[in-house]
């Protein structure tokens, strides 16, 4: 992010690290570092008090930023692609329909959209099935946009959006026929996974309830180590973020529901997420200069905190050229699509508007989506694309239901 190095392909760089992880980690491993990493991982805990600020740090950056790279449905999760010629919007609608169908949503159902984002799933569910939906979020920006879209669609009578932590929904006041959690469980945290499923269990209809969870998942081989560490995503993109393993999810569902949530089916879509991230990255880079270069961040302090990542004076060395920043002058390759160093003048400009003359952070009013921010998000998309492409991460769709729920049975087979 500091612009000190550049590579010809960020995704290939991530792949290189993944395939050589054991050797690279062994060279830097020490008990002291491991202990410090574990302690650092606890500062982003997802207690009720912390979770709202963790969520806001990402989702309240500014709607114009997310609108720039998302499709018209404003769906910020893995799409399901029909083929290489598919559009992002069609792939997202296919995914939404898949979740609705797996939940078995019916016209008279009351559905909880657990982590509703900008309202795409709630809108699709109500429009297509004629059901009632409660969407919950901790992002004020998301709630504002979701409610506006719902009103424009004429569905205010069927969809309600609440700004509330899932743990604060009262099971005595709510009973849902179906619950769909679309890439929200990554914000729960390992220690709260049983709490999450206990709350879903208590909110779900005791006979015919169905819970569908889509989640980015860590592979089982690395999960124990991952739980004790802090990576780029935890630190810079999703504070408090945690990608559970599939076994951790299934185990937490059994523990939290006291065995009353049964795994019905499971599917994995890592290739689909890799493609989704590639498309997001392309759209982000294509629209950055047009949309964000002159926009003011909603959460200015989040951008300002990256101001300490000041590039080297030259900011031009590249791994492809076999060096790191040494202070020597060099020229940038304007045609390098995955150039993470940026132009030296861009880096200097970014530093100017995030720091005053004394090197201290400038006032929040002067913050902007600077070049450090652009490089951070470009790396975020590439980092995750490489992780899904190598199956370090998975994209799981898990369906849980009640033990005696015959609504999911196939009458043609049973006769």
Write a structural description.
This protein has 415 residues and is α/β, with parallel strands linked by helices. The protein has two domains: 10-23 and 277-389, no CATH class; 48-269 and 393-403, Rossmann fold (3-Layer(aba) Sandwich), CATH 3.40.50.150. It has 17 helices and seven strands. It has helices at 10-19, 21-28, 31-41, 48-59, 63-69, 88-103, 120-129, 140-152, 193-203, 220-227, 232-237, 246-256, 270-292, 300-304, 344-352, 371-389, 411-414; strands at 110-114, 132-137, 159-163, 178-182, 210-218, 262-268, 393-401. It has a seven-stranded mixed beta sheet. Helix 13 packs antiparallel against helix 16 (371-389). The longest helix has 23 residues, at 270-292. The termini are far apart. One of its GO terms (biological process) is lipid biosynthetic process. Belongs to the CFA/CMAS family. Residues 330-339 have a biased composition (Acidic residues).
